[in-house]
Amino acid sequence: MPVALVSDLKIGEIILIADIGGGTGDFVPYRVVKCTRSDFKLEQAGAATGSLCGSQLVNVNFLTHLENKAGKDDDPSLSFDQRCENLGRSKLDVFELANNGFEAIKKEFVPRSIIPRYVNIPGVPGNATSKWEVEITSNLMTYFYQPVVDDIFSNILSMLKENKSTKQIVVVGGMRKSELFMSQMTAKYGNKYKIKGDVGFQERSTHVVAQGAHLHYDNIETQTQEPDGYFGVAQDQEFDEDLHADVIIGRNARRTRSQKQIYFYPNHTFESFGKRKVRRRWFPINDKKEAVWKRLTVHPTDEYISRQVWWTSQKMKDGDRMLTEDGKQVMEHILEWGDVTQRCLDWKALGFEYSYFERSKLESKQVREAEKASIEDGEFEREESDDEGNEDNGDFEMGLSNGHSTIQTAKDEENGEDEAEPVVPTRSPDEIYALTSAEEEDIGGPPEVDFMEIEANEGRDVVGYTDDGRYGASIAVYVIWTKLTIEPQGANVNVKWFVAKPGEEPYDDEGNPNPRIMDIQGVGHEGVIELLDTKFSPYARD
C-alpha cells in the first residue's frame, strides 16, 4: 500500500480522478471514508462528468491542419487533393499514413525542443511525388495540443468548484504520458493540489458513462457500481420468425395452416439472393463473452472497411430492433460509442487480383439485361432449343470461380399472339478467356468495369462488364471478420481485423481457431485497433 498517499489524506477529503485516454476525458470525485495503514476505502463523492478531450483529438487537430494548411509554405500551388493525387494515394490512405507518423512523433515530443520533426508520407512507386514531408515544430505541436488541454482544464476546474475538499488530482490514461500536458497541469494546479500522474496503481473502470478510473491497491476498497450500459454492433440478419416477429405484418393475428404466406414491413426487411433479411438488428458484444466475431462482406470496389460500436442503457438481446417504426433512424436510447473506425483496403497487398476476360459473339445489351433479370428474379431455366433449332448445351460459365447462371427466353403476348423475343446468345467456355498482359496493352490497360453482385456456391463472387459489354472482370468477394473484445467493466473496445475466403469461419466444428483466418497485419493495416481507450459519455454531447 502506498503509505505516502495515505499519510497525505484524511477522512472526508476528496481525490479527483482525471481519466484522460484517447477518445474522452472522464472526471470523477472520490471521498476518503477509511484511512489507515491496514484499511483504505474510497466512495464516489459526486456526479461524474466527461467530454471528448482525449489525446486522439490532438491527432485530429494535426490532420485538419494537414488538409487545410500544410504544404502551402513549400508549394502554395498544390491543394491537398493534388498532393494525394501526386502521391498516387487516396485521401483516406494519406490520412492513415500521416496519423501513424504523427502518433510516433507525439509520443516522443519534448516541449520547447528546437529540433523539428517530420511526418513522412510515402508515395506509391512510379508516381509524380515520392514522398510528402510535413515539418512539425515545437510551436506547431503545442498548437495541436492546446485546445485539448484547455478543454481538460475546463472540466477539472468545474469539478474542483463543486468539490472544495479536493486535495489531490490523479491523472490516469494515455494523456499522463504527455510531458507537455503534465508540465502545464503542474504549473496550473500544482501550488494548491498534489498532482500525481503515475503512482503505480492499476487502472480499472467500473462505470461506462463517465465514471472514470478507480484506485485499486492490495488492501484498498472502493465503493463501485456495476456497469450500467450495454454494447453492441448493428448487423443485417437472416429472418427468423421467432427472433424477428416484430417485422411481420399482423403478427398477432392467428394464421390457419393454409395461410402460409407471411407479409413483412418493407422498411425493416429486404430480399437478398432469395433470402429474407432484417435490417439493423442488435448484436451484443459484452454479453458475458470474452470476445465476439462479426462478419463483414466487402465488395472489391470498396475503398475501406468500417466498424461502429453502439451503447444503450436498456438491456437488449441478440436480434432486437435498433430502428424506429418508420425504419429511417436509430432509436433514441441507442447512442454511438465513439467514432466510426475505418481502415483502408488494399486488395493487391492482401493478395487478391482481378481476373479479366473478353466476351465474344454476344449481343451485350441483351445479355446484360437478361443477366440482371436473372439476379433480381431468381434462377431461371432456358428453353430447350432456340428459334433456329439449336440444342441447349446446359449452364454456361459466367467468368466466376465457382458460380453459374442461366437465362430464360421470355415470351410476350402481342396482338393476341405469343411472340418469342430475340434469343440471347449464350456463351460456351471457349468463348471466354483471360486477358494476357499484351492483350491488356492493346486495349489500353485493364478495362473499366461496372460491378454487380451474383450469388455463388459459397459466399459470393462479383462479376462486372464494360459499358459495351465486351470485356469483363471477376473476383471473389472475400470476407472481413472483426474480432471485438471488450475489456473488463467496459473500459476499452479492441477491434482486430481478419480476412478469409467465403465459407471460412473463425473456429472449426470442435471450437479450435481456424488457421485459414488470416490476421490483417503488415499490409498497411493496424492489426489491433484501440477503438476507445477510455469510457465514452453519451451525456458529454448535451
TrEMBL record:
Region (Disordered) location: 367-429
InterPro entries for this protein: ATPase_NBD
Superkingdom, natural source: Eukaryota
Comp. bias (Acidic residues): 376-395
PANTHER family in the record: ALPHA KINASE/ELONGATION FACTOR 2 KINASE, HEAT SHOCK 70 KDA PROTEIN 12A
UniProt name for this protein: Uncharacterized protein
